[in-house]
Structure formats: structure tokens, C-alpha cells
Design a protein that fits this description.
about 150 residues, mainly alpha, rod-shaped
Length: about 150
């Protein structure tokens, strides 16, 4: 689950922020200008240089789109693994574990909300720890009853 949080944060940092969108726009404009200038230097007309510029800009944006699809595919794989791992927990006899697993899967689906994911992970850990904790001994239960 931590890898999913990291992947979402890295995706926001690398591809989705306003600074990165501005850089992409700037690089696209520069690629267009580069292609247009090279075609003009080679003796092309205004229309030809514009077409070459658009081609260079399209090539750059296409490469960025491929990388974005690769990141989405990596995140999809992580989501699939999380859902597969949580499926047996959905049939657990302890209702707290089932509820925590459902909340965790819902939080994993919304990877942008890292606070929700962290809270769901913490709740899931508490529920599983409570469900798998060994029962108190007779003596410990008796002491707990006397203390209360």
C-alpha cells in the first residue's frame, strides 16, 4: 500500500502539477519553433516549416502521453494486487476486519487522497491486530475485571 501512495505522489509531482504543465507547454512551443526553424533553414516554405514544427511538437507530446500511460498501468497493477489480497479478508468472521478492508479498498481507489489512505491503513492495522490477538488468559481476565 505504501508503494501505491508513493506512486500517486510521484505522479502528481512529475506529471500533474501546474509547474510541470507549464514546462510541458514551454517544451512543446520550443519543439515547434525548433522544427519550424530547421525546415526554414533547409529551404522550406512557411507552410512546410509550420508543418514540421507541428510534427515536432506532436512527437514530444506523444512521448509524454506514453509515459503517462505507463505510470497508469503501473498503478493499475498495484490496485489489482491490493484488491486480490483483500478479497479473502472480505469473508472474515470478524465484522471489524471486513469493514476495515472495505474502507481500505475504497481509499486505495482514491489514491489522490493520501490522508484518507493513511487513516484507512491505520484502521485496518488496528482491526487485524485486534482480530488476531490471542485471547486473554483466565488470570488476566480476572485482573481486568477487578481493576474495572
Amino acid at each position: 500500500m505504501r508503494s501505491l501512495c508513493f506512486a500517486a505522489a510521484a505522479n502528481r509531482l512529475l506529471w500533474e502539477g501546474p509547474v510541470e504543465r507549464g514546462r510541458t507547454f514551454l517544451l512543446t512551443v520550443l519543439a515547434f519553433a525548433d522544427g519550424a526553424a530547421r525546415a526554414r533553414i533547409a529551404g522550406g516554405t512557411d507552410v512546410q516549416s509550420g508543418l514540421v514544427g507541428f510534427g515536432r511538437a506532436t512527437e514530444l507530446l506523444s512521448r509524454e502521453r506514453v509515459v503517462g500511460k505507463q505510470i497508469a498501468a503501473a498503478m493499475r497493477e498495484t490496485l489489482t494486487r491490493a484488491a486480490t489480497a483483500a478479497a479473502p479478508l472480505m469473508r472474515c468472521s470478524d465484522p471489524a476486519v471486513v469493514t476495515a478492508a472495505e474502507q481500505l479498498l475504497n481509499a486505495v481507489a482514491d489514491v489522490e487522497n493520501t490522508a484518507r489512505l493513511e487513516a484507512a491503513l491505520e484502521g485496518f492495522g488496528r482491526a487485524v491486530n485486534a482480530a488476531t490477538a490471542p485471547p486473554l488468559s483466565w488470570w488476566a481476565r480476572r485482573r481486568a475485571m477487578r481493576a474495572a
